[in-house]
């Protein structure tokens, strides 16, 4: 059987995967049902090339606090390993979408070039966050498992990262990720 990038068997992550999928589906439905702010495209783009995160990315951002809370609540290394494996795969995919050519972070820079250095710092942090998560998901019994305190510190790093990303979005687009206009 093939192992995922964090070395877990997909069968071990069925329950957490269902949780994440349910959380994202529910948030995507709420997002689709709610009004979204109309953000004009940057110069040179048509409305069909509208900037900003996709609905799936917004749903992921909205689901992230719940997913992080679930990881932080794990009191044993088995739970942390399973949650970290799922979280690592989801974050890897999410970061790849954000960093892709023409992706969300590129849109931020296109819309507000003065944010280039801040966006670059966020991109660089993606790899560091994934690297710091990897020991939690390690399958090797010989590897020391990080404790709950380490998990809580990692969650705080992700939350800080998310706040900085949200702030850049608000600065570039003049709207909050939930669609409200900036005051």
Please describe the topology of this protein:
Layout: H1 14-33, H2 55-73, H3 77-99, H4 104-111, H5 116-137, H6 148-173
Helix pairs in contact: 1-2, 2-3, 2-6, 3-5, 5-6
TL;DR?
With 183 residues, the protein is mainly α. The protein has helices at 14-33, 55-73, 77-99, 104-111, 116-137, 148-173.
Structural features:
single chain, mainly alpha, elongated, disordered C terminus
User: Stretches where pLDDT falls below 50 for ≥5 residues?
Assistant: 1-49, 179-183
- What proportion of the residues is helical, as a percent range? 55-70%
SS-based structural class?
mainly alpha
**Quick one: CATH class?**
Mainly Alpha
Straight-line N-to-C gap: 53 Å
Order of helices and strands: HHHHHH
Q: How many discrete structural domains?
A: 1
Into which percentage range does the β-strand content fall?
Answer: under 5%
Major sheet attributes:
none
Descriptive notes:
By secondary structure, the chain is mostly helical. The chain is built from six helices and no strands. The model is unreliable at 1-49 and 179-183 (pLDDT under 50).
């Amino acid at each position: 059987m093939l192992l995922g990038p964090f070395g877990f068997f997909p069968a071990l992550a069925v329950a957490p995967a269902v949780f994440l999928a349910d959380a994202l589906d529910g948030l995507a439905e709420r997002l689709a049902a709610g009004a979204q702010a109309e953000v004009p495209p940057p110069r040179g783009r048509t409305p069909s090339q509208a900037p900003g995160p996709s609905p799936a990315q917004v749903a992921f951002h909205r689901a992230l606090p719940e997913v992080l809370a679930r990881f932080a609540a794990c009191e044993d290394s088995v739970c942390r390993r399973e949650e970290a494996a799922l979280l690592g795969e989801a974050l890897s995919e999410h970061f790849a979408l954000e960093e892709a050519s023409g992706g969300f972070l590129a849109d931020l820079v296109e819309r507000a070039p003065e944010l280039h250095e801040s966006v670059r710092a966020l991109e660089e942090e993606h790899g560091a966050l994934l690297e710091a998560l990897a020991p939690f998901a390690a399958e090797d019994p010989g590897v020391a498992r990080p404790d709950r305190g380490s998990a809580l510190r990692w969650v705080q790093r992700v939350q800080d990262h998310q706040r900085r990303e949200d702030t850049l979005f608000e600065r570039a687009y003049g709207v909050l990720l939930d669609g409200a206009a900036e005051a």
